[in-house]
Amino acid sequence: MDLILRLRSSRIIRLALRPMLRLRVKAFRRRYLASGAAKKLLALKGAFEGQRCFVVGNGPSLTESDVRRLAGSYTFAMNRIFPMIARTGFAPSFYMAVDEDFIRSERENIRRLDCKFKFLNSSSCPRIIPEHVYPVFINSDVPVDKAGYVKREISTRVDEGFSLSYSVSCYCIELAIYMGFTEIFLLGIDHNFPKMADRDGNTVRDPAAQEHFAGGSYADGNVVFYRDAVTSCYEAYARYAADHGIRIINLTRGGRLEVFPRGDFDRTVP
């Protein structure tokens, strides 16, 4: 597994394969636009204008009490939120997953999830309940250097393709903006993992960092979190929000995400 991950991240290999990968992305995009999925997503553009929502990450700071208090609020959940749902009865308004390997491995949990808005990578979602799925397309230019990736702008037409990010929480923020939410609160997004890579590709380990969920992709230390690259993605959303009258507030207790202004969850959700 570790060898496969190193090969996937190798700058030399990605450079050699880039022409083929770019053709693959273009082919997926043509297929996506021809499928009618874009029109389905277009129906949600601005549908929640002026509303507030919560993007709920799976960080170790997230508590069962937190999600119980979000009942009645618009919420975005992601990836392996299933154990928290089982313990609390949390019913997210929207669910998103984009990693193809994750979607394949958690197909049954995603299928059983009681949520009418499931946003899944278009290349991985045909086996999920079709009427509840909104296929999404990641309009990636296949950067050679994943660790050094710097996001310049976001997509305002996610029905035609999301801009590339390296965290599903970023895709949730982009989708929330597209859907018209003007207050976006982040919770449980700790932005910290035991094994990370900085902008130069150097491995950074934090032995004090907790895993986001038992048995998750980061649990064995083989998956690398590109913290600087993800930070640049958050910065792009912060710039867009500031220019368009959107408030993005980080309610996460602790963590290392300092791009957005901090807020108090207990005051925001009494």
Largest sheet: 7 strands, parallel
Q: Report, as a whole number of angstroms, the end-to-end distance.
A: 45 Å
Catalogue the unreliable spans.
1-7, 214-221
The value of Rg in angstroms is 18 Å
- What is the spatial order of strands in the main beta sheet? 5-4-3-2-1-6-9
Give the strand content. 5-15%
Count, helices: 10
Shape, principal axes of CA atoms: globular
Which H/E pattern describes the elements?
Answer: HHHEHEHEHHEEHEEEHEH
The counted number of beta strands is: 9
Helical content (DSSP H or I, runs of 4+): 25-40%
* Integer count of domains: 1
- Average pLDDT reading: 86
Give the structural class.
alpha/beta
What keyword list fits this structure?
alpha/beta; seven-stranded parallel beta sheet; two-stranded antiparallel sheet; disordered N terminus; 10 helices
What does this structure look like?
The chain has 270 residues and is of the alpha/beta class. The chain has one domain. The chain is 35% helix and 14% strand. The chain contains ten helices and nine strands. The strands form two sheets. It has a seven-stranded parallel sheet. Helix 8 runs parallel beside helix 9. The longest helix is centred in the N-terminal third of the chain and has 24 residues. It is globular and about 50 Å long. The chain starts with a helix and ends with a helix.
